[in-house]
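Example 3.
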Amino acid sequence: MFRRHMMTLAVSVATLAAATGFAAAQDTLKIGASAPKTGPLAGGAAVTHWPNIKLWIQEVNNRGGLKVGGKNMKLELVEYDDKTSGEEAVKNIQRLATVDKVDFIVTPYSTGLNVATAPLIARYGYPHITTSAATDNVPEFAKRWPNSFWLLGTSKQLAEGVADALVKLRDSGAIGKRVALVNVADAFGLELFNAGKPALQKAGFDIVYEASYPLGTQDVAPIISAAKAANPDAFVAFSYPPDTFALTEQAQIQKFDVGAFYVGVGTAFPGYAGRFKDNANGVMGVGGINADSKALQEYRKKHKEVTGADPDSWASAVTYAGLQVLEQAIERAGTTDKAAVIAEIKKKPFNTVVGEISLADNINHKVWSVGQWQNGSFNGVAASKGVDGAKAPVKKEAWK
Amino acid sequence: METLITGILLGGTYALIALGLTLQYGVARIMNLATGETLVAACFIAFWLFASYQVSPLWGLFLIAPAAFVINWAIYTWLLRPLVDRAKTAGMLEVDSILATFGLLFLFQGLMLRSFGGAYTSYTFLAERFEIFGGYYGLNRVVAFVAACLIAGALYLFLYRTRYGTAVRAVAVNPNSANLVGIDVASAAALAFALGGALTACGGTLLSTYYTFNASMGVVFTMKALIIVIMGGVGDVRGAVLAALILGIAETAVARLVDPGLTLAATYALFTLVLLFRPQGIFGRQQT
């Protein structure tokens, strides 16, 4: 008798649990995210990637969730640390797809991790909207993985933007044609160097000093002193955040004054302007935003309110825009069917914080390539065709 | 000249990174894989004191060093002493301590991520020009170098001019014999470990004035410290400082005269040379 009661009880509990679980599954949309929280790229992801996911989830949930076919679905985040390792990232995606069974996956962070996980994300059929990957293989990747969408542009675009900006400065008489060119020796630095050097030479610049340094180098005093000895008019470094900061500080300390000073990733970080204050004025770097755009100003305000920190002035807004694309595509498709959402992404342009984004051929063609600190904001000074709001680059004044 | 001065300043940085590990590994025989995390934690605390309470990192040293001393003493007493007690050979202790401090590394890293986030952090302190023989150098680096010299000098005086220092050195050379002549090996080892932690924290505090750091950067420093400690001769402060200076000058010279891309290669080439010709390190003793 007792046993039968127990059986009944157990069955009821199981049924109830299944029923409530079922109901819950109906009303929430599981979003999976895997990106660095530790490892070499954790610093960049903490500025550019994670805060935007937090902001997006909160925004969508605050207004009642996503409207999917007449139903409001709240977002629930499942997040993993990939330790900046490709293998770990692949394991995370596998887990998100098979164990957590998430409805959608947010792009991983950085070129390397996106490329490492792309085949798996494609195999599971999720839309893959990358917002922090910049590589020249974008057209090839878009073809190989038709579920993937590339929002940040190619390294060629980013590097040629540098040549564009320097040409503008040269034509206005601000600088001559001597350029010192350095790069960090990893995928990003090498790709930009390989695209940037010929672009600069084609534009009529002389490369008077070139060098590459290993990832993780923070003692850049010898690089700056050697570059200074070559007496260039412009200094271009395809660098990563810690070396971006170190190069700037050393240039300032060694009174290395050039008419154009360009450093790589990290220049657009709020911490850059915070640290170098007035001396940041006139420094150019990779990325840029249209600081005059109302939508962007609104986004920056909300980012600060919700996450407690300012976004960077390049990939942060693009990361948020990528999430907006996903959100609008799901709502337009009116279903959580992944294939239908992928088809929807290609159909019509999306209205985002960085302006209208069209992904008909899986690639966003309207990207910022170079920004410059001008009176406290990192304005875009070079961009691909069709991008509004570019400002004219100005000559870098001597370091104080 | 410029290359030499830049190299010496860099060597000073390396000495700061390695001094603590010299004591911990050389005397307490604990291969502390969390030494880089201790360093980065000190960077964060120095930053926090500076940003929130306007405490200059140089004054911060007087808060951070004693705190690190106490924490490391506790770590040694509660976590590592049991390993020391049960280890039958030096090799076994080494393996156990590597595993235990490997765990500590993740604990520290997790705590830092939780408290400070994963973002790059840096602040401006004495980022002014300082002129030496017509060349310009960062004042913060010069100050850190001078502080490193003072700290290394004080440590040298303690180890070579005091009774207790002699006891510590005796433990470094041979713990068993030290025990025979009435030295309290256990407390000397605890002191060395705690002192090592405090030195590492001093290094972090000074480093934070000119380095950009984040919570996951510790392992870079651990690697560098390890190379310097082994090059200098395990447990020898003079050797560690000398090895640090050699590395600093070599790296700067290679970066300036050959190619900045070859600095890592230069480091490892030097390391290999030392291992080939003086496997016991520059000042190390030949094993008998």
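Residues 4 and 249 of chain B are 6 Å apart (CA to CA). The two ends of chain B are 42 Å apart (CA to CA).
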